[in-house]
Write a structure and sequence with these properties.
Blueprint lengths: L1 E5 L5 H10 L4 E5 L8 H5 L2 E4 L25 E4 L1 H9 L3 E17 L16 E14 L5 E6 L6 E4 L4 E4 L11 H11 L8 H16 L3 E6 L3 H14 L3 E7 L7 H13 L3 E5 L1 H8 L5 H23 L2 E5 L4 H7 L26 E3 L7 H10 L4 H4 L19 H20 L8 E15 L2 E14 L7 E2 L4 H14 L3 E6 L13
Parallel strand pairs: 1-2, 1-3, 3-4, 4-9, 10-11, 10-13, 11-12, 13-14, 16-18
Antiparallel strand pairs: 5-6, 5-7, 7-8, 8-9, 15-16, 16-17
Bound molecules: xanthosine-5'-monophosphate.
Xanthosine-5'-monophosphate (XMP) binds next to helix 10.
Length: 513
């Protein structure tokens, strides 16, 4: 595997995505994790040092032991990582006279035939994405310049003998046109087997679960989404009858959700499932609460209370399994506790109470959604289920800004059902990453059948995305929007106005709360 050392860049996890797209397993580890004594280092066949917001010229800036160069494995430094390699090996870093941000053209140093540049620089140039204020101004011994930009030398450097390379730009971001090829060349130089395939991932996750859980018993919280379903299927393969799934009908679900889950688990997969009816518990606790973070925390805590209560009833349960994904972890608390800022407390991570009686098991914690879908397919999960849009743990509560009432939830549930039905009917469902309706706490005046109405408004939101970390709003034809709006207003008594959300992420988030 490749070990990625994180110096706090916002896009570190994109490096991981790109490497895994090359069918190579990788892990991210924070720069201050005592890397040389970490278990992962013994398995690492190469290192990548990420970018970061600091300057290597500042005294206490993040750094790493020079002994990583004695490991004799290939190392690639990106941006901050590139500068750090130079600093550690005796090169010089200075403040750039001209900062480079965004699209930049770099030119190959034609004399060098480095494998790192194989099949790149077709016309001697590459379009890359830069974001730096410091630059390398003197190379360490053994390094040569492989490419430079108009304003800066050493855009790519390499020491072929030691297999150490540095790039000032970000090959992991979409805007570096051939970014993935640079990473592929590095993987080839490191001579790493590209065997991180869905079959392999599935086998290794099942093996890991067997070891982690042993003879103990597990409950798995289902949300109705792909992630918790795949978690349950993996557990079922690993520990069979020691698993009981719990589905909490909390009154915040979409239409037909509870029935579909019951059918899938009990009838189709024949996995032990307990459906807990807890609508009143959730709605009573959410009464009068309109702060989004408070809602999330209350829901997270109630879920755990219900799970713990059920675990007690079932006796001898040691683990609670959840379908937490890598982006959930990063956006909530950051996997490693440091770099990323808290945006929202996703209920299955940040919303958990500090003290819990059950141990957590989260087999998908380092995986991305596309990887989870591939594993699901490996585990015979039906395509229509696999392609379901993500649905957040806190459910309709976070699509109902302001105080939640049963009446509002029921309006939202109906409108949501119509929007999804419409997307399926027009064969648009699979064109979007996620589609949702938000019920606004705003009433507006309308006129229907010559009479005045004063009813709620709702928002249609649909986005395209590959992992939920960034998203662009989707666009539909006027006919589709008009038919959907008509259906909602005609069929949902209580909504008289429909709006369409044209906000991307960032600056918005996908859910409204
Ligand atoms: P945001 O709103 O943060 O959402 O842009 C990104 C993706 O995550 C889903 N989401 C959640 N999933 N528990 C989950 O399991 C949560 O608390 C949660 N909050 C948001 C959201 O639906 C989108 O796909």
């Amino acid at each position: 595997m490749i070990l990625i050392i994180d110096f706090g860049s916002q896009v570190t996890q994109l490096i991981a995505r790109r490497i895994r797209e090359l069918s190579v397993y990788c892990e991210i580890i924070p720069w201050d994790a005592d890397i040389l004594h970490n278990k992962s280092i013994s398995e690492a066949k190469a290192l990548i040092l990420s970018g970061g917001p600091d300057s290597t010229r500042v005294k206490k800036s993040p750094t790493i032991s020079k002994r990583i160069f004695d490991l004799n494995i290939p190392i690639l430094g990106i941006c901050y990582g590139h500068q750090l390699i130079c600093k550690l090996l005796g090169g010089k870093i200075s403040k750039s006279e001209k900062r480079e941000f965004g699209k930049t053209m770099i030119r190959r140093n034609s004399k060098n035939q480095s494998l790192f540049l194989k099949d790149l620089f077709k016309n001697n140039i590459e379009e890359v994405w830069m974001s730096h204020g410091d630059a390398v101004t003197e190379l360490p011994e053994g390094f040569v310049e492989l490419a430079s930009s108009a304003t800066s030398s050493f855009s790519i450097i390499g020491d072929a003998a030691r297999r150490v390379f540095g790039v000032q730009f970000h090959p992991e971001v979409f805007h570096t046109v051939n970014g993935k090829k640079f990473l592929e060349n590095f993987v080839n130089i490191a001579n790493i087997n590209r065997n991180w395939t869905p079959v392999k991932i599935t086998e290794s996750l099942i093996e890991k679960l067997k070891n982690e859980i042993g003879d103990e018993r597990v409950i798995c919280g289902l949300s109705g989404g792909v992630d918790s379903t795949v978690t349950a299927l993996l557990l079922h393969r690993a520990i069979k009858n020691s698993l009981t799934c719990i589905f909490v009908d909390n009154g915040l679900l979409r239409k037909h959700e509870a029935n579909q889950i019951e059918f899938l688990f009990k009838k189709h997969f024949k996995i032990k499932l307990k459906v807990v009816k807890a609508k009143n518990l959730f709605l009573q606790n959410l009464k009068g609460v309109s702060n989004p973070e408070k809602k999330r925390k209350i829901i997270g805590k109630l879920f755990i209370n219900v799970f713990e209560r059920e675990a007690k009833k079932l006796r001898n349960i040691s683990f609670l399994a959840q379908g937490t994904l890598y982006p959930d972890v990063i956006e909530s608390t950051s996997v490693h506790g440091k770099s990323a800022a808290t945006i929202k407390s996703h209920h299955n991570v940040g919303g958990l109470p500090k003290k819990m009686n059950l141990k957590l098991v989260e087999p998908l914690k380092t995986l991305f959604k596309d990887e989870v879908r591939k594993i699901g397919s490996e585990l015979n999960l039906d395509k229509t289920f696999l392609d379901r849009h993500p649905f957040p743990g806190p459910g309709l509560a976070i699509r109902c800004p302001g105080e939640i009432t049963e009446k509002k939830l029921s309006l939202l549930r109906e409108a949501d059902n119509i929007f999804l039905e419409q997307l399926r009917r027009h064969k648009l469902y699979n064109n979007v990453w996620q589609a949702l309706v938000i019920l606004l706490p705003v009433k507006s005046v309308g006129v229907m059948g010559d009479a005045r109405t004063h009813e709620y408004s709702c928002v249609l939101r649909a986005v395209s995305s590959t992992d939920g970390m960034t998203a662009d709003f989707s666009y539909f034809k006027r006919e589709f929007l008009s038919e959907t709006s008509n259906r909602i207003i005609n069929e949902v008594k209580g909504i008289n106005r429909v709006l369409f959300d044209i906000t991307s992420k960032p600056p918005g988030t996908i859910e409204w709360e």
